[in-house]
Amino acid sequence: MSFDYGPTGAKIAENSDYNNDMRSISLVFVLLAFWGLGCQSKTAKLAGVWKAEPVKIQSSPNLNDVSRSAMLSLVTQNLEIEFNKEGKFKYGAGIGGGEGSYTWKGDVLELSFRTFAPQTPLQLKFEGADLVEVTDFASDAKLRFKKVR
Question: Which option is the CATH number for 47-147: 2.130.10.10, 2.40.128.270, 2.40.30.40, 3.40.50.300?
Answer without folding.
Answer: 2.40.128.270
